[in-house]
Amino acid sequence: MAIANCKRCGRLYNRIGRDICKDCIREEDDVLLEIRQYLKKHPQANIYEVADGTAATYEEIVAFLRDGRLILRDNPNMAYPCERCGTLTQSGRLCANCTQALAKELGQAAAAIQKEESQGKRGKGFLSR
User: Which of 73, 92, 76 shows the shortest CA–CA distance to 84?
Assistant: First the structure.
């Protein structure tokens, strides 16, 4: 087993899958449950209001949202900035426009690599008889 220091508290622990120890995982889960309960009672709350009404910080709430651990269905005011452009979004790390743009750029890059590889196979080498 790999031994590591917990990213949150610094204690040594047997690393199984996450960067934090079992105690910190339990604490995170408790905070996440508290956030969910708060949002059930206050569906119109924004991130700052949730942070004020719970033990969570703004950064923790955004991390839960970006990681997909906190899903917003009926909470229209829970928005945070896109990591790429800063536009407000409610899920994932990127807004819808940046997601589409990134997918398009990746598709173009993949096509360029594929084209380069196919051209490279025909142009190299010599034929001798």
Answer: 92
- Highest-pLDDT range among 7-16, 61-70, 98-107: 98-107
Query: Is residue 90 classed as helix, strand or coil in its secondary structure?
Result: coil
Is 103 a domain residue? yes
88 burial class (0-12, 13-18, 19+ CB within 10 angstroms)?
Answer: exposed
CB half-sphere exposure, 81, CA atoms < 13 A: 6
Domains in the chain, number = 2
Three-class secondary structure of residue 12 per DSSP: strand
DSSP 88: E
Q: Are residues 54 and 67 in the same domain?
A: yes
Q: Is the pLDDT of residue 2 over 80?
A: yes
DSSP for 14-68 reads EESSSSS-HHHHHHHHHHHHHHHHHHHH-TT--HHHHHHHSS--HHHHHHHHHHT
